[in-house]
Design brief:
Length: 182
């Protein structure tokens, strides 16, 4: 069951997936995410990188539908989305699979120079693709760089995602990886 604080944070992730901002998530939104990421990387539909990203996000979508789409309309409302993530957070095996998979996909997509780190510019690109203002990315980046080496590693990103999904500490930097909390 989600805490009140998780219910405040998770709409940021919902909004990231709701690319057309119509208040629901559907498969078109998921494909828009893949397309936006692929454009940023220069991947064409049909290339192996595009296919891998597409397959990963469609897998997330299918899991969302299977668990959360109770009325089977192929759209998820925020309420259905929150139920899904409540289920994931309560199931450690599923949580590890889904959240590490999402984190790894995001990281590999935006680590454009493949150096194993996300630079500020790469993190700003992530914000641009998901429709957030890059000035917040600039502001929060130094807090997200947990070891203060000037970059965010995959290990740091996964810790930040864990904070986003599980931390009840309002000051945890991971709370802000998907934008400011409303």
């Amino acid at each position: 069951m989600l805490t009140e604080f998780q219910k405040v944070k998770l709409p940021n992730l919902f909004n990231m997936f709701d690319m057309d901002a119509d208040g629901t998530i559907n498969q078109r939104d998921i494909v828009r995410i893949v397309d936006a990421c692929s454009v940023k990387r220069g991947w064409q539909n049909g290339e192996k990188e595009y296919k891998a990203l597409y397959n990963h996000f469609i897998s997330i979508w299918e899991n969302l539908l299977e668990v959360a789409d109770k009325n089977q309309d192929d759209h998820l409302t925020l309420e259905e989305f929150l139920k899904f993530y409540g289920h994931i957070i309560d199931n450690e095996e599923l949580y590890t699979q889904m959240i590490q998979g999402l984190g790894t996909a995001v990281f590999s997509t935006f680590d454009t120079n493949s150096d194993g780190n996300l630079s500020l510019a790469e993190y700003q690109d992530f914000y641009r693709v998901i429709g957030l203002k890059t000035n917040f990315a600039t502001t929060i980046y130094t807090h997200l760089d947990l070891d203060q080496n000037g970059f965010i590693s995959i290990t740091e990103l996964l810790k930040l995602m864990d904070q986003f999904f599980k931390s009840q500490d309002h000051q945890s930097p991971g709370n802000f990886i998907f934008g400011p909390i409303a």
